[in-house]
Design goal:
Elements lengths: L3 E3 L3 E6 L7 H5 L2 H4 L10 E6 L13 E6 L17 H10 L16 E6 L6 E2 L1 H13 L10 E4 L1 E2 L5 H12 L4 E4 L23 E6 L15 E6 L3 E5 L3 E6 L1 H23 L5 H9 L2 E2 L5 H4 L3 E2 L3 H24 L1
Parallel strand pairs: 3-5, 3-7, 4-5, 7-9, 9-10, 10-11
Antiparallel strand pairs: 1-6, 1-8, 2-13, 12-13, 14-15
InterPro entries: Peptidase_S8/S53_dom (IPR000209), Peptidase_S8/S53_dom_sf (IPR036852), Peptidase_S8/S53_subtilisin (IPR051048), Peptidase_S8_His-AS (IPR022398), Peptidase_S8_Ser-AS (IPR023828), Peptidase_S8_subtilisin-rel (IPR015500), Subtilisin_Carlsberg-like (IPR034202)
Pfam families: Peptidase_S8
Protein name: S8 family peptidase
């Protein structure tokens, strides 16, 4: 039974030309931390979606592995080719390569992609496929012992399914953050709740959408489990046929956070000189948000801003050193 679906989204335009660094990637300040975060290298992002165009110039070198959990391609589990477009777009925002000769850059261009096709050509799937996809991502191991760093799901359904919740909790208990779209059933009022699962589970990182003016998108779901917001209006990324498309939706906000977690993981784990738990990674993510002034039900902790913490610490050091100089002057 097809009862899980793509979070509805809008196709704004499809083009052949590419912009080097999309506005959404710039808005969350990813390029400012690329060097420090080693571009997200060493991380594998599991994208549970409609698949991915495997030979897209910006993605072909990024895909480490994949699997098909749908009846598409006669159920051939090895064929995870995207026959819809949505998954290719999401994958590009998360981790498109930074090519010298053009193309676009994703948030974590050094990360690899584990493409798990759990939705068919119509953008629909069943809960069993999603659950199997999550469990596969948890247990997956790459050719050199790689493991999944983050699970990303720009999909949802109306039902709270116990087995789905168990799979989500298993991932989090295994140290893997799960990033989910909030949904696009919003009525432009933070006072009313709209829920889509698995996004509404407290264990996942639920992402709402803002536009480039930092305004909450009118379609973005609001509820008491929203964790943060990211760009989700007119997002430019990879698309079928080696092309690029501009799409809108919380589906587009989600991979910004997925890629960001790869960058944050590299920065924080070097700083602490150890692996971080899922809860610690979440705490590091929240530290890199800026409140926008909306109710928590709309924006959670605020807008993702990867360089905000560094800027704040620099400001704190400047203020601190000024106070020390003033104290020395006064005591002299």
């Amino acid at each position: 039974m097809d009862n899980v679906h793509l979070i509805p989204y809008r196709v704004e335009e499809i083009t052949i030309a590419a912009a080097q660094i999309p506005q959404g990637v710039q808005m969350i300040q990813a390029p400012a931390v690329w060097e420090q975060a080693r571009h997200g290298r060493g991380n594998v992002l599991a994208i549970l979606d409609t698949g991915c165009q495997r030979d897209h110039p910006d993605l072909q070198g990024q895909i480490i592995d994949g699997r098909n959990f749908t009846p598409d391609y006669r159920g051939d589990t090895a064929n995870f080719e995207d026959n819809h477009g949505h998954g290719t777009h999401v994958a590009g925002t998360a981790a498109a390569s930074l090519r010298q000769e053009g193309g676009i850059a994703g948030v974590a261009p050094g990360a690899k992609l584990l493409v798990l096709k759990v939705l068919n050509s119509e953008g629909s799937g069943d809960y069993a496929g999603i659950i199997n996809g999550i469990n596969y991502a948890i247990d997956w191991e790459g050719p050199n012992g790689e493991k999944t760093s983050v699970i990303s799901m720009s999909l949802g359904g109306p039902e709270d399914v116990a087995e789905l919740h168990r799979a989500v909790k298993r991932a989090v208990d295994s140290g893997i953050p799960i990033v989910c779209a909030a949904g696009n059933e919003g009525d432009n009022s933070p006072a009313t709740d709209e829920y889509a699962y698995p996004g509404a589970y407290p264990e996942v990182i639920q992402v709402g959408a803002v536009d480039f003016n930092r305004k909450i998108a009118s379609f973005s779901n609001s509820n008491d489990e929203i964790d943060l917001v990211a760009p989700g209006v007119r997002i430019y990324s990879t698309f079928l046929g080696g092309k690029y498309a501009t799409l809108s939706g919380t589906s587009m906000a989600t991979p910004h956070v997925t890629g960001a977690l790869a960058l944050i993981k590299n920065i924080a784990e070097e700083e602490f000189a150890r692996k971080l738990t899922e809860a610690e990674l979440y705490a590091q993510l929240v530290r890199r948000t800026i409140p926008l002034g909306y109710p928590k039900t709309a924006e959670g902790n605020g807008l993702l801003a990867l360089d905000a913490l560094e800027k704040f610490e620099q400001l704190f050091k400047q203020v601190n050193s000024s106070n020390i100089r003033a104290d020395q002057k006064n005591s002299g």
